[in-house]
UniProtKB/TrEMBL annotation:
SUPFAM superfamilies: Nucleotidyltransferase, Poly A polymerase C-terminal region-like. This is PolyA polymerase family protein. One of its GO terms (biological process) is RNA processing. Keywords: Nucleotide-binding, RNA-binding, Transferase. Belongs to the tRNA nucleotidyltransferase/poly(A) polymerase family. CDD domains: NT_ClassII-CCAase. GO terms for molecular function: nucleotide binding; poly(A) RNA polymerase activity; RNA binding. PANTHER family: POLYNUCLEOTIDE ADENYLYLTRANSFERASE FAMILY PROTEIN.
Amino acid sequence: MGNVRIRYRMTEDGTPVPFARVYGVEEHGIRREAIDHHALMVIRRLRKAGHAAYVVGGAVRDLLLGKHPKDFDIVTCATPGRIKRLFPYARVIGRRFRLVHVYVTKEEYVEVTTFRSARADDPNAYGSIEEDAFRRDFTVNALYYDPFSEEILDFVDGFTHVRERRLVPIIPLDRIFEEDPVRMLRAVKYHARMELEMPKELVRKIRDDAWRLEEVSASRLTEEIYKILACGEASSVWDALQRFHLFDHLLPHVHEVLGAAGPGIPHERWREEFERLDRLVREGEVDRDALIVPFARLFVERDGMRELPFKELYRAFKEFLRPFTPPNRDVDAALRRVLRKRRRKRRRRRCVRHAAVQDARGEG
């Protein structure tokens, strides 16, 4: 490789041991200009205060794959309390793992986390950047980009795995999904969206541990489902979730309806709805309630549902979506979108039939 350096550390007996690769811009091709200016501002202030800070995770992975990241997450050695003191419009959130949202507008924020310790028993124990790398889920998510030197720091061969399009877990398979079952959803999403190849052992483990999704809180599952719906490639991800046997544990009522329908028109419509949604997301023309319209259409088109009073339909639809729990206003708006569209179609059909009758009478 051209511009790659090796970092070493000394063992107790004074022997130098390589522990990280440093890739220059000639190797990875990511320029500072590709980084969100708000993220650069946050990193610059952290550095000025004497703290190491990097762009980390999905943003680095996506840029290496030629995609434009939606989020630019930052990791630093500064503790959440110190970050909050540096940024007046910052909020410390999370009970399981504390992190900071640094607000750059009323609604937009940059997410900042602190290097995690190797101690898996305490999610809020802080450590070094190397420890942090080994606490991440997959090697492709454990790359650290310095926007000022334009270098990538790699402790786990993640750079090579991105180039080879391989999804390699960092945490041992006997712990990875027991610690956090949501990692199964993310693995399948990376596989479907980025065509990252999974080793057979990982595929088998996902299928064996699929039931663990039922232990995850509704709020976390809702967050992950929204990420899938808004990714612009939801149709591919839903297909993959079904192949990996995760769908029935993620959305059991939806799975039951699709399963009862058997292959054919309902499945075709389901895919068409998500392909339409993906196009809208990629064009940037989708409201939040529109993200759940495919579910609303599948639900409303079941036998007898159209005849229900709206309040009953609304309650039944919320139950149908569980454990996915969108805001009430989005549930209401999605149902009304579908019902309005159906009414317009019925009116058009009546107009066509009326015109045909008039034509027939005229011809008579």
